[in-house]
């Protein structure tokens, strides 16, 4: 009978799969994934900007295909890592940092908010200024994260 009610409830309100760091909380946090993702955004932006367009004077279909393929791949990786950076930052912001950290680091919310917005902007644009600003913001958060372990 118990299983009947569980199946009935699940049929009416199906469970949705969710993803999170762990929400136990496990106490295992690091800024490294966000830093690596931000550095990847910088590198992909660099590669996109360095990519030469196909030559129309001596147009070569294979060369054009390869350059377009590279461009699409660089954009996809930049997008993925900007999103990963945002997700990793949000884990630190919402799961690791506590109200007592705000006493020591009063600019914490503003710093995270700015970094999260830069993740979105890095996806929207191919701008080295935005990519470098994102990396700098994540480095600031990583620095605060390290300092918070010493308090």
Automatic annotation (TrEMBL):
GO terms of molecular function: nickel cation binding; superoxide dismutase activity
InterPro entries: NiSOD_sf, Superoxide_dismutase_Ni-type
Protein species of origin: Candidatus Wildermuthbacteria bacterium RIFCSPLOWO2_01_FULL_48_16
Protein name: Superoxide dismutase, Ni
Recorded superkingdom: Bacteria
Pfam families referenced in this protein's UniProt entry, alphabetically: Sod_Ni
């Amino acid at each position: 009978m118990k299983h009947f009610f569980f199946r009935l409830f699940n049929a009416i309100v199906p469970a949705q799969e969710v993803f999170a760091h762990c929400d136990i909380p496990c106490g295992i946090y690091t800024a490294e994934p966000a830093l690596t993702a931000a550095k990847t955004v910088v590198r992909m932006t660099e590669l996109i900007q360095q990519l030469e367009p196909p030559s129309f004077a001596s147009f070569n279909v294979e060369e054009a295909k390869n350059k377009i393929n590279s461009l699409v791949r660089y954009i996809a990786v930049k997008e993925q890592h900007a999103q990963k950076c945002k997700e990793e930052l949000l884990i630190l912001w919402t799961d690791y940092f506590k109200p007592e950290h705000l006493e020591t680091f009063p600019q914490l919310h503003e710093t995270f908010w700015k970094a999260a917005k830069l993740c979105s902007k890095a996806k929207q644009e191919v701008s080295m200024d935005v990519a470098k600003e994102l990396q700098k913001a994540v480095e600031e958060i990583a620095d605060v994260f390290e300092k918070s372990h010493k308090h």
